[in-house]
Specification:
The protein is α+β, with helices and mostly antiparallel strands. The protein folds into 2 domains: 39 residues; 87 residues, no CATH class. The chain is built from 2 helices and 7 strands, in the order H-E-E-E-E-H-E-E-E. Strands 5-6-7 form a 3-stranded antiparallel sheet, with no helix packed on it. A two-stranded antiparallel sheet has the order 1-2. Strands 3-4 form a two-stranded antiparallel ribbon. It holds the Pfam family TAFA. Keywords: Signal. Belongs to the TAFA family. This is TAFA chemokine like family member 5.
């Protein structure tokens, strides 16, 4: 009688881990999809929309929307012509050039009313960015 009860337990023991591992694998995959598909890593940004308007001669107007997951004390900004998390004090004080928004070979100048900045390339081409 003891041997038959041991066999019964062993059958349950061998089938339970198979069901359990399948269940936990499904739970793990589902949670990974939820975590990684909808969220950004802390301190990173991604471009959500990018619209370009070249209807005017010698002028292109680009509008970009970025989604950022910034750390405490940071806010969405621009570093080296890409969206990035920057110190919130830079944005509050509107000292845009402190966040290094231009590429390495470009010069940065604030607009007169501090509503944005210009990046001047060595060849003289000027890119103007306004903040809205």
């Amino acid at each position: 009688m003891a041997s038959s009860s041991k066999l019964g337990r062993r059958r349950n023991v061998t089938t339970w881990p198979i069901m359990s591992s399948t269940f936990w694998a499904a739970v793990l995959l589902t949670s990974l999809l939820v975590i990684y598909c909808g969220q950004l890593a802390a301190g990173t940004c991604e471009i959500v929309t990018l619209d370009r308007d070249s209807s005017q001669p010698r002028r292109t107007i680009a509008r970009q929307t970025a989604r950022c997951a910034c750390k405490k004390g940071q806010i969405a900004g621009t570093t080296r012509a890409r969206p990035a998390c920057v110190d919130a004090l830079i944005v509050r004080s509107r000292q845009w050039c402190e966040m290094t928004p231009c590429l390495d070979d470009e010069g940065c100048d604030l607009l007169v009313n501090h509503s944005g900045w210009t990046c001047t390339q060595p060849g003289g081409r000027v890119k103007t960015t306004t903040v809205s």
